[in-house]
Specification:
Blueprint: E1 6-10, H1 15-26, E2 30-35, E3 49-53, H2 63-69, E4 75-80, H3 95-116, E5 122-131, H4 144-164, E6 170-176, H5 182-189, H6 193-201, H7 210-221, E7 232-235
Parallel strand pairs: 1-2, 1-4, 2-3, 4-5, 5-6, 6-7
Bound molecules: NADP nicotinamide-adenine-dinucleotide phosphate.
Length: 242
């Protein structure tokens, strides 16, 4: 289904991004992986796995991914898995808080897409996937920052899909419901069992595992999705149909 592609992945050190790296490496793809915590990917290191240790808040360093790590090769895909989540009442939100969450969830993705869209760094027919969330369309109290970043992704995906169609790029979003990753485990550690059960009950097919999400990402990265662009594909165990 997918092989011999070169894919750039942010959030490669954890959860969905890490699982995607593992899948692509097992299927003969080359991965340029961006993250901060190198310890988490120690066992993946190989000729086909290049790790770029980078805090995505440091926008001025992004050129190292394309100029140094890529080393003259061209990418076929980019998946922006890096993301941060927070729960905070509106009274505590400051412009700095909003800036912080937008920097990682949205602005870093746009800046990487700017580099990626250059002919010298990517092949025509490339595929780009942003991870939004069911929270991109549905609200939840205390999630103004997170919800607005995930909604912003839906707008940038449609705009860039149109703009980059001239290079036969596809740009899509996926919107997962709750998936069992370190992000979710952190959230669950902060709430009581009743609330955890309530969240699980909101997913008719239960909450997801990373393995449930990877096939959709792989499909979108593969040539089989060559006529799909500008879409937001929900993958949420039925969460959003209620
Ligand atoms: N899990 C869910 O239930 C769920 C549901 C819907 C959507 N999503 C979205 O799916 C994506 C992946 O989520 P996940 O659950 O896999 O999250 P996760 O396990 O918490 O992983 C988050 C990733 O983002 C990276 N990251 C965060 N801040 C960074 C920074 N400043 N610089 C560089 N990298 C940074 C982390 O890198 P380090 O490890 O190096 O810090 C990590 O690799 C996120 O966009 C999330 O919003 C998740």
């Amino acid at each position: 289904m997918i092989k011999d592609k070169i894919i750039l992945i942010t959030g490669a050190t954890s959860g969905i991004g890490l699982a995607l790296c593992k899948y692509l490496l097992e299927n003969n793809c080359k991965v340029i992986a961006v993250g901060r915590d190198e310890d988490k990917i120690e066992n993946l290191k190989s000729a086909k796995f290049l790790f770029v240790k980078l805090d995505l808040n440091d926008f001025s360093q992004y050129n190292t991914i394309f100029e140094e790590a890529l080393n003259g090769e061209k990418l076929d895909g980019f998946v922006h898995c890096a993301g941060i989540e927070e729960t905070m009442p509106i009274t505590l939100y400051t412009p700095e808080n909003i800036q912080k969450i937008f920097n990682i969830n949205v602005f870093s993705g746009i800046e990487l897409l700017r580099f990626f869209s250059k002919k010298k760094y990517s092949n025509d027919g490339s595929s780009v996937v942003f991870i939004s969330s069911v929270m991109g369309e549905l609200g939840q109290p205390g999630k103004i920052g997170y919800c607005s970043t995930k909604a912003a992704i839906l707008g940038l995906v449609k705009s860039s899909a149109l703009e980059l169609a001239k290079r036969k790029f596809r740009v899509n979003a996926i919107s997962p419901g709750v998936v069992n990753t370190p992000m979710t485990q952190k959230l669950f550690s902060q709430i009581d069992q009743d609330n955890i059960q309530r969240i699980k009950n909101m997913h008719p097919l239960d909450i997801g595992q990373v393995e449930d999400v990877i096939p959709l990402l792989v499909f979108l990265l593969s040539d089989n999705s060559r006529w799909i662009t500008g879409q937001n594909i929900k993958i949420d165990g039925g969460y959003s149909i209620q």
